[in-house]
Amino acid sequence: MSTNAKKILLINDLPGYGKVALAAMVPILSHMGHYPMQLPTAVISNTLDYGRFRIQDMTDYMRDTLQVWDQLGLDPDCICTGFVTSQRQVEIIEQYIQTRNPNKGRLIMVDPIMADGGKLYNGMGAEQVNAMRRLVSLSDVMIPNMTEASFLTGFWPGSYFGTAQQIWQMVDGLRQLSGRSVVITSAVEVEQQPVLLEDMPDGTARYLVCGYDHWTGTYFQVPYDYLPVRIAGSGDIFSAVMTGELLAGKSLEMSVRSAVQAVSRLILDNKDELNNYKGILLEHSLDFLDEIEDDDED
Fold first, then answer.
1. pLDDT tens track for 173-190
2. pLDDT digits (tens, 9 = 90+) for 212-255
3. Is 9's pLDDT higher than 70?
């Protein structure tokens, strides 16, 4: 565990019911020895998978809270962005990032949450994609899934699998947006691209997290075993662990490996209690993070 606690500004939604977004990231980063600052973009009654929900937009609260924190001198060491509800929220985040002291060595992490499974989320369109392009351009590390990468780059929009050449072309396309590091989660590599992008790949597919580390100037890929479950909040868990490891001084590739291991371990440890909609009740499983960090040091 890191002995050097960092203030981490988490900009994401806050669920009333469900271990996703802020409810998943805060306990992980706290356990890893960091101090989360929570800035909800929306308060949501429950995860959207239930079909019925209430969303309270928090744009004005975001704006006012950032002003109060500035007046109090609360300056984060790291800024992590997740789900945002509007272009106005993107503008608030952009302005906040751009007015920070550039000499602080602040880490900017952007998860451009807007799509999965080959399509944009309901209510998302070209304007939201363009807004996310602006936001990832400010990142030190962007963390799209493969569908989001396809929309951000314009390469095979709506695809969630591709050949090795196509996947690395996406990585390079994303690099052009920020000039810094890229992590594509849940990349599915097939030997030959099917005629129809929506066709599922066969059993020969490889499952990868891949990207580029601008600190070392190297590409990397981390294969993982596909688990045939969809768990709400798994992306938030991945982002939190990877961020915590980076702040502890680990390399990007090593941080990605820890995050992959963490998500897999949490799913397996909670396999008898999984609920696709509510996420993972993860607090009782967090001690394994210490084991992962010990393994990294061996």
1. 999 999 999 999 989 998
2. 999 999 999 999 988 777 778 889 999 999 999 999 999 999 99
3. yes
In whole angstroms, give the CA distance from residue 164 to residue 12.
32
Q: Which two tokens stand for residue 233?
A: 């909040």
* Token pair listed for 126: 């070209």
Distance from C-alpha of 36 to C-alpha of 295, rounded to nearest angstrom = 25
Tokens of 225: 């075993």
Give the span between the Cα atoms of 45 and 51, in whole angstroms: 11
CA distance 20 to 16: 10
Tokens of 273: 């209690």
* pTM score of the predicted model: 0.92
Type of residue found at 60: D
Structure tokens, 72 = 């109090």
CA 218/CA 257 separation, integer angstroms? 15
DSSP string, 248-282: TT--HHHHHHHHHHHHHHHHHHTGGG--TTTB---
Q: Which residues of 37-62 are buried (b: 16+ CB within 10 A; e: fewer)?
A: bbbbbbbbebbbeeeeeeeeebbeeb
